[in-house]
Amino acid sequence: MSKKAKGNRGEERAAAFLVENGLRIAARNFRIDGGEIDIVATSPAMFIFVEVKFRSEGSYIDALERISPAQTARIRFTAQHYLLQHGLNQHQLRLRFDVITITGPNADLYWLKDAF
């Protein structure tokens, strides 16, 4: 299975997990020049922008360490564009940036809320 296919499968699993935990998926793979958000989810109280990291080896810590400050800045920038494109005022909403890692031979899922 290709790396892209594994990543897509990981994102599918992450989205299903979020739905199981009461969130609604508003968008998947939202892209602009210079950035992408894997999943945009909502709850009645907030918008949640989710970065999904899939690694077939290692732990969730290994996956978290691969998220650089530059990447978090790109995700925040992309989130601003998502909100603007949907006519939403970021100053009137509660926002959260989460990370879901899927790692190891058993594809263990770890959800880090408010990661950055």
Characteristics of this structure?
116 residues; five-stranded mixed sheet; 34% strand; Trna Endonuclease, Chain: A, domain 1; endonuclease; 3 helices; Restrct_endonuc-II-like; hydrolase; alpha+beta
What does this structure look like?
It is globular and about 40 Å long. The chain has 116 residues and is an alpha+beta fold. The chain has a single domain, classed as Trna Endonuclease, Chain: A, domain 1.
Instruction: Please compute the radius of gyration using only Cα atoms.
Output: 14 Å
Oligomer: single chain
Would you identify the regions where 5 or more consecutive residues have pLDDT less than 50? none
Structural class: alpha+beta
Note the gap between the termini. Answer: 31 Å
Beta-strand portion reads 25-35%
Which bin fits the share of residues in helices?
25-40%
CATH fold annotation: Trna Endonuclease, Chain: A, domain 1
Number of helices: 3
Topology:
Elements: H1 3-20, E1 24-32, E2 35-42, E3 47-55, H2 60-65, H3 69-85, E4 95-103, E5 108-112
Parallel strand pairs: 3-4
Antiparallel strand pairs: 1-2, 2-3, 4-5
Short description:
This is UPF0102 protein DEU29_10843. Keywords: Endonuclease, Hydrolase, Nuclease. Strands 1-2-3-4-5 form a 5-stranded mixed sheet.
